[in-house]
Amino acid sequence: MKRATAQSMRNAFGAECAAHMRYLLFSDQAAFENFPNIARLFRALAFSEKVHASSHYRQTKELLGEYCVNFSAPFILNRTVDNLTKAFESEKEESEEYYQPLAAGARSQGEMHAAQSFEWLAQVEKAHSDMVRRALDALEHAAEDPEIGELYVCDICGLVMEEKPPENCPVCRAKQFRFRLIE
Amino acid sequence: MKRATAQSMRNAFGAECAAHMRYLLFSDQAAFENFPNIARLFRALAFSEKVHASSHYRQTKELLGEYCVNFSAPFILNRTVDNLTKAFESEKEESEEYYQPLAAGARSQGEMHAAQSFEWLAQVEKAHSDMVRRALDALEHAAEDPEIGELYVCDICGLVMEEKPPENCPVCRAKQFRFRLIE
């Protein structure tokens, strides 16, 4: 893998590791506020970010070594309504202002596998932001834990779906059995 | 919290999030090679790094915002014997070349709570490196999964103990009930 693309991958690994941890903390906070469905939504997002981090890590494995990792991340741990707002903003930003340009950069280097991976993630993070937006609207409207159906996460691209997954993942075409139900 | 100490805390948060994820991947690899005890040791280390990341995140919460995170990390995913070797080296390095100077820096700014937290972590990462060294020696000697007793992790400072924990954590003095048994 070309050096610039590999470094993008490592930075994205760092960002995804941090997002994974942030969503675990947001989930604990939601459980504390007695919002079990939102806590479950954050667990689904945390698992999705773990899938992304793991994928990024494995893709750079040909260039073993010690590397610097740089990324920007929100530091917030507040009431659940604020955490959801920040999650919505950062998922949207990750799609438009992070993975889309990373995909273009990887494509310009001829790194088509990395480019496709970044493109999938741009789609996945966009889907997440829509899902978080719906949960946020519901919470703001009713001021109680919103109804959220069963959540499934694709363990190839990390897509979270609030319905029984179809035969193939709509983003990465992985088979249905790759989806994991989040408890 | 003073700005330099807060930035150290955020960088350490990033490093711990990445270490958490790396140990989860190492654990999967150890399980794949049929080393269930080493897989469990890596799960204990992953949980410990999660305790650290969570603690760092919570300590910076008065300075909410979007911040850059910078750290250096090993990128390796190999045979378990290599992963253990890298884990030994990086735990030792984290103690001596990371948390000890961070603690001195925080102390110089009068940030005594942060300094104590960094000092605890220097001790904890040192204890981890010794534990990983023993597992590595046993694996290299017998070429089979080494015997490892029950593993308990303090959920305040992240100390991993291979024995029933005493009344108080030897590092942070937390009560015995704070230790979690790793399955």
Q: Under the CATH scheme, which class of chain A? A: Mainly Alpha
Gross geometry of chain A: globular
Count of discrete alpha- or pi-helical segments spanning 4 or more residues of chain A: 4
* Beta-strand share of residues of chain A: 5-15%
* CA gyration radius of chain A, whole angstroms: 16 Å
Number of E strands of chain A: 4
Helix content of chain A: 55-70%
**Could you state the oligomeric state of the chains shown?**
homodimer
Mean pLDDT of chain A: 95
Major β-sheet strand ordering of chain A: 3-2-4
The greatest interface between two protein chains, and residues involved on each side, is: A-B, 33 and 33 residues
Pfam family, one (chains A, B): Rubrerythrin
Domain Ferritin-like diiron (chains A, B): 1-143
Keywords (chains A, B): Electron transport, Transport
Protein name (chains A, B): Rubrerythrin
